Amino acid sequence: MSDHIIVERRGAIQLVRLNRPDKKNAITRAMYDRMASALRAGDADDDVRVHVFLGAPGAFSSGNDMQDFLAVATGGDHGKDVFDFLVALASARKPIVSGVDGLAIGIGTTIHLHCDMTFATPGSLFKTPFTDLGLVPEAASSLIAPQIMGHQRAFALLAMGEGFSAEQALDAGLIWKIAEPEALEAEVIAAAEAFAAKPPEALQLAKKLVKGPREPVLDRIREEGELFLQRLKSDEAREAFMAFMARKK
Ligand code: COA
Predict the structure, then answer these.
(1) What is the model's pLDDT at position 2?
(2) pLDDT more than 90, % of the chain
């Protein structure tokens, strides 16, 4: 179970790799928990200067695990794992570089709104089918995405569930660069090494200034989270999760 998230140190880089390729890197509660711990530990460790997130070939992530969604929809405990991860992500003091190849669904897209430099391969797909699942946007995406890309594109992404190609994501300011699949990891690591070579205090201050105040972001994560939980228990959501499960058979 624990190797669904691999945490690795490479010099001053802490690399978090999503490693559940058989499920297209769908993220379970245990995986959120592991990523939150890694982010907090890396942020607190002076030997770490930059965080990196990578997925698997073909799938950065297919989003939150549908079985976990269904468990909450049918009366299970929702826990704090997702919330804790989002808080750690939004509060990280050190730069975050990410690399996407292929699917980036739900949180697989919104995570990059908190990253400082994202690379994606030409065939990547960014998509958040929140409303189709009876849900609402999360990860403060309803606040950050309109700031980055303007209302109409953010609405298309977050409310309409339109898929964005890598080109569209680049155009929308969701990612920094397009990289060929065979060069993706090397480009991500090179960018992380460039960050790691900077004076760390100055870099962290620069990130803090560029990102702006965290309170509105954390408030929005909370507000969305409350709605999200209500929606998880709605008939609309339950039907959508069951339809996904049935589709597999
Ligand atoms: N949660 C749990 N399992 C998931 C998953 C998810 N979010 N996404 C994919 N999987 C599983 C599938 O059930 C399948 O498992 P199986 O082999 O045991 O049947 C496996 O991963 C491969 O997925 P599959 O659907 O066969 O691949 P695909 O290439 O045809 O489609 C997706 C990929 C991502 C488009 C499709 O799986 C999908 O729509 N997933 C749900 C995405 C989603 O809505 N996420 C939540 C966003 S808020």
Answers:
(1) 60
(2) 98
Pairing of strands 125-127, 103-105: parallel
What is the atom index within ligand 1 of the atom nearest the CA of 138? 48
From ligand 1's centre to the CA of 87, what distance in Å?
A: 26
Cβ(65) – ligand 1 distance below 6 Å: yes
Distance from C-alpha of 172 to C-alpha of 68, rounded to nearest angstrom: 31
Residue 82 CB less than 6 A away from ligand 1: no
Nearest-angstrom CA–CA distance, 57 and 110: 19
Read off the pLDDT of residues 76-124 as tens digits, 9 standing for 90 and up: 998 999 999 999 999 999 999 999 999 999 999 999 999 999 999 999 9
Q: What are the E-state strand segments in the chain?
A: 5-10, 13-18, 50-54, 59-61, 96-100, 103-105, 117-120, 125-127, 164-165, 177-178
- What is the CATH topology of the domain spanning 2-182? 2-enoyl-CoA Hydratase; Chain A, domain 1 (3.90.226)
